[in-house]
Amino acid sequence: MKEKSGMDLFVHPLTRNQIVDLLKDNSPELNEELFSRARKIREDIFGKKIFIYGFVYFSTFCRNNCNFCYFRKSNEIERYRKSPEEVVDIAKQLAASGINLIDLTMGEDPGYHQEEFNTVLEITKIMKEETELPVMISPGVLSDRLIDKFAELGVEWYALYQETHNEELFKKLRLHQDYFERMDCKMYAKEKGMLIEEGLLAGIGEKEEDIADSLMVMGKIGASQMRVMSFVPQKGSPMENAETPDRNVEMKIIALMRILYPYALIPASLDVDGIKGLQERINAGANVVTSIIPPQSGLMGVAQSTMDVDEGGRTVEEVKHILDGMGLSVASASEYKEYLRTLPQRSAAASGGVTC
Ligand code: SF4
């Protein structure tokens, strides 16, 4: 009898062990098969359309000390906190350029925590009114009371990444932070009607089994958007000298996310390899381009804080140009809103891509 190859294992739904085997098998044939299946699934559901998100990282102050992060509080770097007027102006510029959503991101800024987030709530309210675009907030861990306030403003998305679902590894990466507090926080946001984005970092000491667990948890918690980014060493951080992983790992995780959760929104982040990394992520099955930043705005990215920003590489025009060359196009704001309207039902219908 013919021995089972990696590709024979690739049946839907997948078990944890099968996901692990697929991650361990690095044969070019298997990888190509994964990417091509992921693209086919994306095309069946989303056609030729790709969504695009604008990124507004408006405060780089943070009370935490994550080992992998450039903006950790112990790192002596120049920081900024944009004024509400600046944030709203940038958001309007992004909206005019054709993005589908504004991702309002900050470190866990102690200043905003001290004032109960009044400024951020005000910014969010004005921004929603002025741009009429859906908003994702990425503020870190919040109290239930604050999540209630964002939910009342009609904020569509709450992004909060564990980065790993191995609790021991979490402790080493997110120093002095509580794994379950973070999980509970996003589950509370979901209960309040917000869509949630979960994320993992590739190349931070995880094993294939940990990646498989992350993929399963993402489905279990009902994350509607799932992101993976390759770790990039950050100057001045304790992981400054660690190596960045082979990008193939990130691409395979993107493909597996698409195969396991066909309706999920899956980012191709410009924040890892800049605009030059867009094509391979889209080819792996991603359907959202994130981290679009207006040039000369004084804003930074997260993993690659300045890469391609002022050179204009992270703009809608550049993204359109690349997608066009791939036979794809950017969705309109109304197409994105329509997709969001039906997303909760679709995610629920599609959960079942993994068996225990
Ligand atoms: S990852 Fe986020 S919470 Fe952690 S140090 Fe960086 S900005 Fe702060």
Automatic annotation (TrEMBL):
<feature type="binding site">
    <location>
        <position position="68"/>
    </location>
    <ligand>
        <name>S-adenosyl-L-methionine</name>
    </ligand>
</feature>
<feature type="binding site">
    <location>
        <position position="290"/>
    </location>
    <ligand>
        <name>(3R)-3-methyl-D-ornithine</name>
    </ligand>
</feature>
<feature type="binding site">
    <location>
        <position position="182"/>
    </location>
    <ligand>
        <name>S-adenosyl-L-methionine</name>
    </ligand>
</feature>
<feature type="binding site">
    <location>
        <position position="269"/>
    </location>
    <ligand>
        <name>(3R)-3-methyl-D-ornithine</name>
    </ligand>
</feature>
<dbReference type="Pfam" id="PF04055">
    <property type="entry name" value="Radical_SAM"/>
</dbReference>
<dbReference type="InterPro" id="IPR007197">
    <property type="entry name" value="rSAM"/>
</dbReference>
<feature type="binding site">
    <location>
        <position position="138"/>
    </location>
    <ligand>
        <name>(3R)-3-methyl-D-ornithine</name>
    </ligand>
</feature>
<keyword id="KW-0408">Iron</keyword>
<keyword id="KW-0479">Metal-binding</keyword>
<keyword id="KW-0004">4Fe-4S</keyword>
<dbReference type="InterPro" id="IPR058240">
    <property type="entry name" value="rSAM_sf"/>
</dbReference>
<feature type="domain" description="Radical SAM core">
    <location>
        <begin position="48"/>
        <end position="271"/>
    </location>
</feature>
<feature type="binding site">
    <location>
        <position position="103"/>
    </location>
    <ligand>
        <name>(3R)-3-methyl-D-ornithine</name>
    </ligand>
</feature>
<dbReference type="GO" id="GO:0016740">
    <property type="term" value="F:transferase activity"/>
</dbReference>
<dbReference type="GO" id="GO:0071524">
    <property type="term" value="P:pyrrolysine biosynthetic process"/>
</dbReference>
<feature type="binding site">
    <location>
        <position position="69"/>
    </location>
    <ligand>
        <name>[4Fe-4S] cluster</name>
    </ligand>
</feature>
<feature type="binding site">
    <location>
        <position position="227"/>
    </location>
    <ligand>
        <name>(3R)-3-methyl-D-ornithine</name>
    </ligand>
</feature>
<feature type="binding site">
    <location>
        <position position="66"/>
    </location>
    <ligand>
        <name>[4Fe-4S] cluster</name>
    </ligand>
</feature>
<dbReference type="InterPro" id="IPR013785">
    <property type="entry name" value="Aldolase_TIM"/>
</dbReference>
<feature type="binding site">
    <location>
        <position position="161"/>
    </location>
    <ligand>
        <name>(3R)-3-methyl-D-ornithine</name>
    </ligand>
</feature>
<dbReference type="InterPro" id="IPR034422">
    <property type="entry name" value="HydE/PylB-like"/>
</dbReference>
<protein>
    <submittedName>
        <fullName>Methylornithine synthase PylB</fullName>
    </submittedName>
</protein>
<keyword id="KW-0411">Iron-sulfur</keyword>
<dbReference type="GO" id="GO:0051539">
    <property type="term" value="F:4 iron, 4 sulfur cluster binding"/>
</dbReference>
<feature type="binding site">
    <location>
        <position position="174"/>
    </location>
    <ligand>
        <name>S-adenosyl-L-methionine</name>
    </ligand>
</feature>
<feature type="binding site">
    <location>
        <position position="291"/>
    </location>
    <ligand>
        <name>(3R)-3-methyl-D-ornithine</name>
    </ligand>
</feature>
<feature type="binding site">
    <location>
        <position position="62"/>
    </location>
    <ligand>
        <name>[4Fe-4S] cluster</name>
    </ligand>
</feature>
<feature type="binding site">
    <location>
        <position position="163"/>
    </location>
    <ligand>
        <name>S-adenosyl-L-methionine</name>
    </ligand>
</feature>
<dbReference type="GO" id="GO:0046872">
    <property type="term" value="F:metal ion binding"/>
</dbReference>
<dbReference type="InterPro" id="IPR023891">
    <property type="entry name" value="Pyrrolys_PylB"/>
</dbReference>
<dbReference type="InterPro" id="IPR006638">
    <property type="entry name" value="Elp3/MiaA/NifB-like_rSAM"/>
</dbReference>
<keyword id="KW-0949">S-adenosyl-L-methionine</keyword>
